[in-house]
Amino acid sequence: MATSGESNSENEKSVPTFPKQKAFNLGDVVTGSAKTLSDAEKAKLEEQNKRMVTPFQALKLEQEARKHWDLFYKRNENRFFKDRHWTTREFSELLSGEEVEPAGSDSSTPTLVKSTDCENGKTLLEIGCGVGNLIFPLIEDGHRDYFIYACDLSPRAVELVQKHNLYDERYMKAFACDITSEEVFETLPEGSLDIVTLVFVLSAIHPEKFLPTVTNIYRLLKPGGVVLFRDYGLYDMAQLRFKPGHKIAENFYMRQDGTRSYYFAESEVSDLFRKVGFTVVVNSYIHRRTINPKEGIDVPRIFVQGKFNKLETA
């Protein structure tokens, strides 16, 4: 019987390949191939199967997803996640007064051109805004030439965003919303957005709701709009660390605090967005080491990062 590592490897040989983006950090490895597991790592994944989350527990986690994220932000407020000052470096679409042209180029080096979109009502939505770790660094760095919408499943997170000293409804609006449902259309009309960011968000959603989530995003975007995506990659260090009793389904896990995390194969992300109607601009695994010599930290991480475009003719 093939192991999960072997079956994923076989599947990825037959899927189409897409342009890869350049490495942004020294030591990054950008690839279309999943990590090759050692025997010890395969054994860890097999061990996880010995005691799974029960169907009753899994249903309760889904029903109480909002409650668990509210409790998360009650405990941690704005102290847990670091500000994401890296986003404009890795997603040049976010740069103030500039845009990438052409959107479908397969070049790893974006060509930047001056934009006058601020006059034309350019709009951005951050899905899963948390306490504003992406949007407020954008504002601090002077990227204010578009109106920012920010939504989160947790009303408590949205409240923290609204209390931030940089929150100003002249150029932003934060609101609570379940992006897997039709709820978002109560605030935003279809075809109203230029950019949607989906950074470490889809992994927190039940896999059965991936398709409706991405469908909603497609509906929200204007023709020519783009999704900027990053999330946990298959066999990331965090996935391998889960003990028995935390696995809900294949590559889907429950954390100690009741929040959940999914680990994506690069090919399934491409397939998901293409199924809805997006074109893949770039999509890659990024293997990165988080190193802090002072604290003796050297952690290998795996992300999937991509850009997905809604065609002008859509």
TrEMBL record:
InterPro entries: METTL2/6/8-like, SAM-dependent_MTases_sf
Domain of life: Eukaryota
Coiled-coil annotated residue ranges, if any: none
UniProt keyword annotation of Transmembrane helix present: no
Gene Ontology MF terms in the entry: RNA methyltransferase activity; S-adenosylmethionine-dependent methyltransferase activity
GO biological process: methylation
Keyword vocabulary terms for this entry: Methyltransferase, Transferase
Region named Disordered: 1-22
Enzyme Commission identifier(s): 2.1.1.-
Pfam family, one: Methyltransf_23
Job description of the protein: S-adenosyl-L-methionine-dependent methyltransferase.
Family per record: Belongs to the methyltransferase superfamily. METL family.
Protein name: tRNA N(3)-methylcytidine methyltransferase
Organism the protein comes from: Anopheles culicifacies
